[in-house]
Amino acid sequence: MADNQEIVSKTHVLVVSFPAQGHINPLIQFAKRLAFKGLKVTLLVFITNELHQIPSSSIRVETISFTPQTDNSNCIHGSFFKNLQDSVSANLPEFIAKQTKDGSPVSCIVYDSAMSWVLDIARELGVAGASFFTQSIAVCAIYYHLNEGKLKIPVEQPSVSLPGLPELDTYELPSFVYNTKDYPQVLSVLYSQFSNFREVDWIFFNTFNILEEEAMNWMRSLREIKAIGPTIPSVYIGKQLEDDKDYGCNLLKSNNDCIGWLNSKETGSVVFVSFGSAAALGEEQMTELAWGLKRSNTYFLWVVRETEEKKLPSNFVEETSEKGLVVQWCLQLEVLAHKAVGCFITHCGWNSTLEGLSLGVPMIAMPQWTDQSTNAKFIADVWKVGVRAKVDEKGLVSKEEVELCIKEIIVGEKGNEIRKNSDKWKKLAEEAVDTGGSSDKSIDEFVKELVNKSS
Ligand code: UDP
């Protein structure tokens, strides 16, 4: 046993993340779980700006800066992907060679599936490769079908029926499917995730077996995949790792202590509003949401990133200061885990969806783009842990609708049903990551397989 432990501790895994918050978070958390199993783990992040780190004793975090040749560092531009690929290709072999020279050769590169070309580098260096998908299996199955030509763009029928998935109305498909003109490069990156789907040594998904059982069974008919999520710090779920309060690597700095404010509020009385790290609401939508929050007469904590602040109606913050707190960024998990929070208005990014579900917070889905509409479908109709806010003929969620949804969750009959389902899914998520749970077992299997392969 001791010998085996020694072999495990010498097995070095390099985790390479895509430089966006929604990608860094699950990968860093997965890295910590691998380290908890005894592996030596380094997280490598290619970044365009500063990374605010909370030191983690279990893994090493290394950064390499690169400068995208675009007028901004927004990662949806084609040149961003190209510059990232150039930078990784130029730096990764040297980085790996240095690990060998330092006596700690890399056995496996776990890379974000959006960077599928990392596998070519791994193969050239004789290192094993594992692709980590940061979106749901359901969403990835849709991209898989598109890539295989089994679903054609533009989707002309009002709804589609795909194996392992519920019937999806067109608007419930990922936005890139119907909005191909604006982001053609993104769609090609999403397809490329499957370019080496059968060859790569391991495939990981940030989900858990029972959450996406049917989609997973379908994907497992293509090849073996491992569900290892939800990748949420242990203080909140599973309790395996000690002192693991936050993901630990933020692209934005949390500049406000909202926990003190939450402490003064009653259980379940606060609506938490967050649209993640990238979604940008139109000014009109921002105004409707703002006045909807005010009309609901409920306490609210709203994350409005610095770049979005100018869209807030003038005087809104002053006018609602008795009921609301607007912050630029917060530790979202700490907020969601707070007993005062009774409802989460979310853009339905996959991490936020998993966080809301795993912490048992009923959600109001306001998807904006990319995979969020599909996640919203699952929140409202499959897991039934929230409602989807209806969009009017102008494409907006009106202030009246915001008010209605909040009341439905906080005081309405439907809220009770949703809270019951939320409690159920919270327990199931915990079971999956706890010792011996399905996701925990998948990680154990990977460690065993990797050690066998490397020795
Ligand atoms: N997040 C955070 N503080 C905030 C807002 C978001 O820590 O104020 C985190 C959130 O917990 C999640 C991530 O940022 O882990 C956002 O990822 P998601 O997939 O939900 O959305 P994206 O930013 O990719 O659109």
UniProtKB/TrEMBL annotation:
Top-level EC class as recorded in UniProt: transferase
Pfam families the UniProt entry points to: UDPGT (PF00201)
Lineage, top ranks: Eukaryota, Viridiplantae, Streptophyta, Embryophyta, Tracheophyta
Pathway the protein acts in: Pigment biosynthesis; anthocyanin biosynthesis
GO cellular component labels: cytoplasm
EC number: 2.4.1.-
GO biological process, one term: anthocyanin-containing compound biosynthetic process
Domain of life, per lineage: Eukaryota
Reactions listed under catalytic activity: an anthocyanidin + UDP-alpha-D-glucose + H(+) = an anthocyanidin 3-O-beta-D-glucoside + UDP
Keyword annotations of the record: Glycosyltransferase, Transferase
Name recorded for this polypeptide: Glycosyltransferase
UniProt KW Glycosyltransferase keyword: yes
GO molecular function, one term: quercetin 3-O-glucosyltransferase activity
Family per record: Belongs to the UDP-glycosyltransferase family.
